[in-house]
Design brief:
The chain is an all-alpha fold. Among the domains are: 66-102, no CATH class; 109-124 and 133-162, no CATH class. The protein contains 6 helices and no strands. The longest helix has 18 residues, at 2-19. The two termini are 46 Å apart. This is Beta-barrel assembly machine subunit BamF.
């Protein structure tokens, strides 16, 4: 009898645990520990080809073994890292960047967006912290801010715009 009751409780627990489909939206941590993503590994040290023509040291400058993610990504994708300008933009894309920033680019875009999002979240979450069952708060809060992709795609197609193909809505 005890074994059957124990198996039944275990089965119910497993079944209820399988019902939870909680996506990974909340990436905040409660830990005050160190941030492991702030540590950047350096490239391996290599000996120079000729010790007589070493560059002069630049205090506060970059080092040959420092990570340069933009140049490394350009090289990994088959481009030339030497073709990047001071902002990390390839010379072939300079006209595109000039056109998109022709009305000016605010220097604090990320900070302004973060501040606006904090104010939005504060307005949305007054008494919503108390729930009987676990819910996806991210989807609830940003539901009005999201687009229905198939509806928007069909709307653009009906208005005559060329749109890329997309998978059917039922998949």
């Amino acid at each position: 009898m005890r074994l059957a009751l124990g198996l039944m409780i275990l089965g119910i627990g497993v079944a209820l645990g399988g019902c939870g489909k909680k996506p990974l939206h909340n990436l905040r941590t409660n830990s005050q520990g160190p941030d492991e993503f702030m540590v950047l590994p350096v490239k391996p040290l290599t000996a120079p080809r000729d010790y007589a023509v070493l560059p002069a040291p630049t205090p506060g400058g970059t080092n040959l073994v420092d990570q340069n993610p933009k140049a490394d990504a350009v090289a990994a994708l088959g481009g030339r890292p030497s073709a990047l300008d001071a902002n990390g933009v390839p010379s072939s894309d300079s006209a595109l960047v000039a056109t998109t920033s022709r009305y000016g680019v605010p220097s604090n875009t990320r900070a302004a967006l973060a501040q606006a999002d904090q104010e939005f979240l504060k307005r949305q979450g007054r008494l919503s912290g108390f729930k009987l069952f676990p819910v996806d708060r991210y989807s609830q809060i940003y539901k009005r801010e999201s687009l229905e992709p198939f509806y928007v795609n069909e709307r653009f197609r009906r208005s005559g715009f060329g749109t890329p193909t997309s998978p059917p809505a039922n998949q």
